[in-house]
C-alpha cells in the first residue's frame, strides 16, 4: 500500500526546512566566489549520476523480508524558475528531473528492478555558494523480478509504483562540475492492483557527480 499524502507532505516540508537551516552558515555565501552558482540560473540544464545502497525498513509495512539493493540513477534536470525568496535563507529555484533508475538486489527476494521517475527538486542557492543543498520529491514506475518469489508479500506484480523523497548536497568543484551526496526514502508498491501489496520501504545514501551545461552569462 502507498503511504497517504498525510505522510509525504509533512515529510517533504520537513526536509526543506532541514536543508534551509544549513544556509545559516556564513561559508555558504562567500561573495568572493560569485559566479559559481550561474549553473543554477533559469533554464539551466544538468546531468547527474548517483549510486548507493538502499536498505529496507519496516516503517509503514511490518513483516516484509529484508530487501537491500544497490541503485544507480541517471538524471536529466531542467531549472524552470528564477531565484525565489530572495534575501532569505530559503532562496532558491525549482527543477524538473527525468530519472532512469537501475538496481541490483543483493539481499532479499529477486535480483533486479529498474524504471523511470519524475522528480521535482528545490535547490537552495545563495549568491557565490559552493555548497548547494536541495530537497526533492517524485514518483515513477519500475519493472522487477522480485514478484516471482511467492514467499514474500511486499511486491505483487512485475510493474510497481515508486513514490520517493530525499535531501542532498552539491559541492561545486568548478563552474560545470559538482560532487553530490544524497539521502533518500524510496517506496515500492502497486496501489492494490495485485493480491500482494504490503509494499517495500527503503532508506539509503547515494554519492555521485553532476555536470552543468554552459549557460549564457548575464
Number of domains: 1
The biggest sheet amounts to: 8 strands, antiparallel, barrel
* Terminal residue distance: 48 Å
The order of strands across the largest sheet is: 1-2-3-4-5-7-8-9
- pLDDT averaged residue by residue: 85
| Alpha-beta classification | mainly beta
Shape annotation: elongated
Cα radius of gyration in angstroms? 18 Å
CATH level 1 class label? Mainly Beta
Q: Number of helix segments?
A: 1
Secondary-structure element series: HEEEEEEEEE
How many DSSP-defined strands? 9
CATH architecture: Beta Barrel
Uncertain segments are: 1-36
Strand residue percentage: over 45%
What is the helical fraction, as a range of percent? under 10%
Structural features, described:
It is elongated and about 55 Å long. It is built from 1 helix and 9 strands. It is 8% helix and 49% strand. The protein has 218 residues and is mainly β. The protein has a single domain, classed as Porin, CATH 2.40.160.20. Residues 1-36 have low confidence and may be disordered.
Please specify the SSE layout and strand pairing.
Elements: H1 5-22, E1 45-57, E2 68-79, E3 92-107, E4 112-124, E5 131-144, E6 159-161, E7 164-174, E8 177-188, E9 200-212
Antiparallel strand pairs: 1-2, 1-9, 2-3, 3-4, 4-5, 5-6, 5-7, 7-8, 8-9
What labels describe this entry?
elongated; 9 strands; mainly beta; Porin; disordered N terminus; 218 residues; 49% strand; 1 helix
Amino acid at each position: 500500500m502507498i503511504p497517504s499524502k498525510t505522510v509525504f507532505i509533512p515529510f517533504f516540508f520537513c526536509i526543506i526546512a532541514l536543508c534551509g537551516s544549513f544556509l545559516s552558515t556564513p561559508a555558504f555565501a562567500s561573495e568572493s566566489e560569485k559566479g559559481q552558482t550561474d549553473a543554477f540560473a533559469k533554464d539551466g540544464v544538468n546531468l547527474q549520476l548517483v549510486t548507493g545502497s538502499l536498505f529496507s525498513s519496516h516503517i509503514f509495512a511490518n513483516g516484509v523480508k529484508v530487501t537491500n539493493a544497490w541503485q544507480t540513477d541517471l538524471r536529466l534536470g531542467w531549472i524552470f524558475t528564477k531565484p525565489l525568496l530572495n534575501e532569505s535563507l530559503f532562496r532558491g529555484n525549482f527543477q524538473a528531473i527525468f530519472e532512469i533508475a537501475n538496481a541490483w538486489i543483493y539481499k532479499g527476494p529477486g535480483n533486479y528492478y529498474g524504471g523511470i521517475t519524475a522528480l521535482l527538486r528545490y535547490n537552495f542557492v545563495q549568491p557565490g555558494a559552493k555548497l548547494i543543498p536541495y530537497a526533492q520529491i517524485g514518483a515513477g514506475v519500475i519493472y522487477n523480478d522480485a514478484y516471482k518469489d511467492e514467499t514474500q508479500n511486499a511486491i505483487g506484480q512485475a510493474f510497481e509504483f515508486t513514490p520517493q523523497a530525499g535531501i542532498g548536497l552539491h559541492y561545486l568543484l568548478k563552474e560545470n562540475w559538482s560532487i553530490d551526496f544524497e539521502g533518500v526514502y524510496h517506496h515500492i508498491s502497486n496501489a492494490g492492483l495485485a493480491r500482494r501489496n504490503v509494499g517495500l520501504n527503503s532508506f539509503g545514501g547515494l554519492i555521485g557527480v553532476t555536470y552543468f551545461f554552459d549557460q549564457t552569462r548575464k
